[in-house]
Amino acid sequence: MDENIVLKIENLEKSFKNFKAVDGLNIEVEKGEIYGFLGPNGAGKSTTIRIILSLLKHDKGNVYFFGEKFTNHSRELFSRIGALVEKPDFYLYLSAYRNLKYFSELYGHKFSKNKLYETLEMVGLSGREDDKVKTYSLGMKQRLGLAQALIHDPELIILDEPTNGLDPQGMREVRNLLTDLAVNKGKTIFLSSHILKEVESMATSMAIINKGKTIVEGKVQELLKNSQTHIYIETNNLPNNFNFENNKDIKVIKIEKNNIELEANKNVITSVIDKLRSDNIEIYSVNSVNSLEEYFIQLTGENNVS
Amino acid sequence: MFLKLVKLELFKIFSKWRTYIGFIAIGVLVPIIHLAMLAEGETLIEVSTRVLRSSFDFNGELINGYMVTRIIMQFLFINIPLLITLVGGDMLAGEATSGTYRLVLIRPISRLQLVIAKFTAGSIYVALLVIWLFILALGLGVLIFGTGDMIVVRYSINIIPEADVLWRYGISIGYSFLSMWVVYTISFFFSSFVENSIGPIITTMAILIVLNILNMVDIGAFSTIQELFFTTHMNAWIILFDEKIDYAAFFRSALILIGHVLVLSISTFIYFNKKDINS
Asked: Which of A85, A220, A227, B269 gives 20 to 30 Å between its CA and that of A127?
C-alpha cells in the first residue's frame, strides 16, 4: 500500500441496532494534508472518528494507518497518532500539568518537565498549568485537549471540532498552529468541523459525508471549481420587467430594484454583464462567491447547514 | 508497560478524596472501639462467658490486644465492604462519567492491559485497606491491652497460646483480603456496564444485603444454595481461631471466593475488551 497515504478508510460500516451510522465509507488522507471531514449533524463523522481510534467496533471494512492495516494487535501505531475526540474531558481533580503528564506517560516513556510546560505554553495555557482542570473554561480545556494530542509529536493528528468553545482570537491561534504544523512540520491533520469557513480556509483536501456515506472527496480547490457560484450584482434602477429569460445556465435567486443575485457557473459572468449592458443598465459592482458553504448546501441539502 | 499502568491507576485512585473515606472511617472507628473496650470490655466478656462461668473458673486478664483485634474485625467486616464499593464501583464507570476513555484508549495500550491494570490497582487499594485495619486494630490493641494467650469464645472456649496467635492473624489477613476482593470484583464487574458509578455501588450493596438476609433463612433445602453465596464464606477466617482448625472447610470457602473473583473478573475483562465506548 502507498505509504504516502497516512489514513485510509475502506468500506467502513457500523450499525447501532437498526440504524446504519456508517454505510460503506471510503476515505484517503495523504501525508502533509489538512483534511477536512464535513457532514451535517448525524452524518456519521464522530462515529467514524471513534471507529478509526478503536473506541467503537465496526461491523465491516478496514482502517489503515501509514499503509498498515489497523488491528487490535497493532496499537503501537497509536504512538504516531494524536487525537482529540469530541469535547475535551479531563480528570477535573488534577491540574492541567498532571493531566498532560498522565496522558503522556501512557505512551510508555517519560516526557521532561520542560517538554510538558513547552506544550502547554504552545497551546496558550502558560500561567494556568498548575490550576486544577475543574477551574478551566471550555476554551481552556480545548487548548489542553490540543496539548495532549500534540505532546508526543505525532505524524497524524485527528481532531474533532478543535476550535469549539474558543473565542475568535483563540480560534485564529489554533488555526495558525494547525496550519504551521502541516505546512512547516509536515504533519497530517484530519479535521472534523462544523465551521465550514474554518475548513475552507485551512483544508487542502476534504470529504463531505451524509448518512454514513462519502458524497464527495477531493482537493478543496478542485471541488469548489465545479460548484455553482453565487453572483451578486449592484446596478442602477432596473426596469420592472427585467429578467434573464432563455438562459438555462442561470438560476435567478432574486432581482430587486438595484440588486441581482444569481446562481451560475463563473463562466457566465461575462454574458450576464453583456446582457445588462445591452439593456443599458449601469453596473456598480459584481461579486462572485464560491464558498464551501454553498457547495455543502448543494450536496447535503439546505436544512443540514450548521 | 503494565506496571506503569498500574502505577498510573494507583496515582488516580489516591488523587480522589473518596479513596480516603475508607481509611478515615477505619482510622476513626477502630480507636473508638478500643476505647469502648477499655471502658466496657470486662462487662462484655463477662456477659459472653456467663454460661461458661457456672462450670469454669476464670482467673486473670481475659482481654488483651489479640482478643480485641478479633472483635474489631468481626464488627468492621460488616461495614468495610460498603467502603470498598465506593472505589470499586467507580473504577470503570467513573472514567466513563468523566469522558476520559476518549483520551486514554487512543494511546498505544490495549483495553485488556488497561482493564487488568485498573483491576490490579483497585485490588491493591483493597489490600491496603485490610492491612490498615489490621495494623490499627492489632497495633493499638497490643499497645492498650497488651499481649498474652488469646481467648476465643465461639461454640466453646478456645485458648490459643500467644506463640500461635500471630501466624493465625497472618493467614486471616490474607483471607480477609480475599473476602473484600470478592466485593471489590462485584462492584468492578457492574462498573463495566454503566457510565455512572452510583449504579454499581448501589447494586453491589443490594446484593450484599439480599444475600446476607438469605443466609439467615434456616431451611434445610436452602442450605445447598447458601453454600454458593460468597457472603456465606466471607467470615470463614474465624475458623483460623478454633483450637483445631478445620482446614477442609477453610480451603473450600477460600476456593468458592476465588471462584467468584475469577469468574467475575474474567467476565469483566472480556466484556470491557469488546464494548463500544460511547461516553
From this structure: A85
